[in-house]
């Protein structure tokens, strides 16, 4: 883990999406934070030690999802499926599918695996799964303020952890989407889907993947601000029975023609039961520096 000194910083952005507004000062005490998102190898050790079964591996109940079709009341998770041609960006159903058998071990469905992906971020983990891992590790999930303070790497007010240019001098410094989302992924950054957690340079605090690759859970309840009802990246209208938590950092599905959210200030709300192929997490530990 990396020690992040406490301090006051300018949180949010007035330049992008309404839910990030307004820019305001926030303060945090010092804390430790994982150098990179929790990986498949780390999560496997947790599961082997505890026998934990993730949310996407459990059978959903009719009581939990009274309106779900019978074929969806089976263990599974949401997977991005690239359409073969251009589609309307207004309908997320054109690229998201509930896939039976998709889980952290099988990120693209039952016939896929995480072989050779030990150093990729674990995905298909909902909020409960992330909290369970953090508790086992003697850690916690970060608040949104802690996460954003760490993501900025000491750069006050910059759009990205490295400055204000998305791809300075044509260099890709995070795992995002190149091409026309959702049907054309040019993978100019070298990756289609998730990437190893240390594939891109760290920020000023020595932290990897604070933008792109996978969204990351925080403990902060999501409440739209700036007049925004929800972000463009949310897959569906939130279930009013379920709490929303802020996820941060964007993912490998963030594309210039659709979602400019691979940035420290970016935020969206996810239902605590959400498990998808582009949401992961990292942990913090609070206490004095050693």
What does it look like?
- With 290 residues, this protein is α+β, with helices and mostly antiparallel strands.
- It has a single domain, classed as paralog of FGE (formylglycine-generating enzyme) (Alpha-Beta Complex).
- The protein is 10% helix and 16% strand.
- The chain is built from three helices and eleven strands.
- The protein has helices at 40-50, 127-136, 144-151, and strands spanning 2-4, 7-11, 24-28, 31-33, 76-80, 96-100, 215-221, 244-248, 267-271, 279-280, 284-285.
- A four-stranded mixed β-sheet has the order 9-8-7-10. Strands 1-4-11 form a three-stranded antiparallel β-sheet, with no helix packed on it. A two-stranded antiparallel sheet has the order 2-3.
- The protein is globular and about 50 Å long.
- The model has no long low-confidence stretch (mean pLDDT 92).
């Amino acid at each position: 883990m990396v020690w992040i000194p406490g301090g006051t910083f300018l949180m949010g952005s007035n330049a992008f999406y309404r839910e990030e507004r307004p820019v305001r000062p926030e303060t945090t005490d010092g804390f430790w934070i994982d150098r990179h998102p929790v990986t498949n190898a780390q999560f496997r050790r947790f599961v082997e030690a505890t026998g934990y079964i993730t949310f996407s591996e459990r059978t959903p109940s009719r009581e939990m999802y009274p309106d779900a079709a019978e074929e969806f009341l089976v263990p599974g998770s949401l997977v991005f499926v690239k359409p073969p041609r251009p589609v309307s960006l207004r309908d997320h159903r054109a690229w998201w599918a509930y896939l039976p058998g998709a889980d952290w071990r099988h990120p693209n469905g039952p016939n896929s695996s995480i072989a050779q992906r030990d150093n990729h971020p674990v995905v298909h983990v909902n909020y409960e799964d992330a909290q369970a891992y953090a508790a086992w590790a003697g850690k916690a999930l970060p608040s949104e303020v802690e996460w954003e303070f760490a993501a900025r790497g000491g750069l006050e007010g910059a759009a990205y952890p490295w400055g204000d240019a998305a791809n300075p001098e044509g260099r890709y410094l995070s795992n995002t989407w190149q091409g026309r989302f959702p049907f054309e992924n040019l993978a100019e950054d070298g990756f289609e889907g998730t990437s190893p957690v240390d594939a891109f340079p760290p920020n000023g605090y020595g932290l990897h993947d604070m933008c792109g690759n996978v969204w990351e859970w925080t403990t902060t309840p999501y409440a739209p601000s700036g007049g925004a009802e929800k972000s463009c990246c949310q897959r569906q209208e939130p279930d009013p029975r379920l709490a929303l938590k802020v996820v941060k950092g964007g993912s490998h599905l963030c594309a210039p023609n659709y979602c400019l959210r691979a940035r420290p200030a970016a935020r969206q709300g996810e239902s605590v039961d959400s498990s998808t192929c582009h949401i992961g997490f990292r942990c913090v530990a609070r206490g004095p520096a050693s």
